[in-house]
Amino acid sequence: MYYVFHKQMMKMLGQLDKWLETAEAHAKAKNFDPNVLIDARLAPDQFAFVRQVQSACDVAKLSTVRLTGKEAPVQPDTERTIEELHARVRSTIKFLETVSESDYANAATRLITHPRWEGKGAHGADYFIEHAIPNFFFHTTHAYAILRHNGVDVGKKDYLGPQTRHNI
Amino acid sequence: MYYVFHKQMMKMLGQLDKWLETAEAHAKAKNFDPNVLIDARLAPDQFAFVRQVQSACDVAKLSTVRLTGKEAPVQPDTERTIEELHARVRSTIKFLETVSESDYANAATRLITHPRWEGKGAHGADYFIEHAIPNFFFHTTHAYAILRHNGVDVGKKDYLGPQTRHNI
User: CA of A123: which chain B residue's CA is closest?
Assistant: First the structure.
């Protein structure tokens, strides 16, 4: 289960990278600076686009670190351009590519701790289903929704990405 | 894996039911008709709130039907009030409660077909990871984002719901 979703997170981050390209093309066609989208948000007290993208990357990276024990590169959240967000997404995917199925061997029973959990812990299995996966989709979907709200022509197919189908 | 996510989908729909309550309380406090939220949307060519909620319910219901072979109640998409959306969400949860882990025994290898897939099919395992789960979170998160965009005071804890933690 873990590695199947690990690959799905890599795929979704690849789609997110494409949404950024669509946003750049939209800005070019409408003759505005694509980097104004960095601070776009759906509510004044909700994360802006830049932080939705950073968070999507971080959930993928940190859930992998917590469930496998692998070390990941530190990323300082300094992005201010779409180009820098491309680099953030691509470096996250590059890290995820270094992880293999066997790295997740003890994921279910690992003890996961978090600075905001007030001294409590979670089993890896619960953390993964209840926290990591919902958070990952929360931030990817908000990134998508902010672009969509700003006129960027992304659709459900761009969200889902390629699907494995066969003749019947 | 399937039943673990089945329970997670039930939990998320339970959270969605609570977001509807928060929306009703917000409308009451601001003295507006809560049912105007039904037609709220983030982009003119994106689904309105009502259809995001119907779609979240349908992905949960139809993925369960496709992966287990169970029969589900038909729901005609006629909701026009928040009260009716409560009923839709609750009846979906009620159906999901009738399904047990053993119903998913052959889920991975079932052949999934879809009217929009132009005669192609997908294995249950691929359909579940690539289509059902991302779509479920897409529509629940959009429902949440539309409420948030309209000033409803929901936050990440309301999105995630209760988390399984233990002392360490």
Answer: B165
Is-contact A37 A26, C-beta < 8 A? no
Is any Cβ of chain B less than 8 angstroms from the Cβ of A135? Answer: yes
State whether B42 and A168 contact (CB < 8 Å): no
CB contact under 8 A, A137 and B135: no
Measured distance CA(A147)–CA(A157) in Å, rounded: 15
Q: Which residues of B touch A125 (CB under 8 A)?
A: 4
The answer to whether B92 and B53 are in contact (CB under 8 A) is no
Q: Is the pTM of this model over 0.90?
A: yes
Structure tokens belonging to residue A133: 């996966």
Residue ranges of alpha helices (H) inside A31-111 are 49-68, 82-96
> How far, in Å, CA of B64 to CA of B77, rounded?
19
- What's the CA gap between A132 and A115, in Å, rounded? 15
Residuewise pLDDT in 10s, chain A (168 residues): 999 999 999 999 999 999 999 999 999 999 999 999 999 999 999 999 999 999 999 999 999 999 999 999 999 999 999 999 999 999 999 999 999 999 999 999 999 998 888 889 999 999 999 999 999 999 999 999 999 999 999 999 999 999 999 988
| Alpha-carbon distance A140 to nearest alpha carbon in chain B (angstroms) | 9
Say which of A113, A122, A163 has its CB closest to residue B131. Answer: A163
CA B99 to each of CA B58, B64, B128: distance values in angstroms, whole numbers, following the listed order: 15, 8, 16
Q: Which of B60, B84, B85, B86 is nearest to B72 (CA)?
A: B60
Residues 4-63 of A with CB under 8 A from B: 4-5, 8, 11-12, 42-43, 46
- Hey, are the CB atoms on A130 and B161 less than 8 Å from each other? yes
Cβ count within 10 A of residue B98: 11
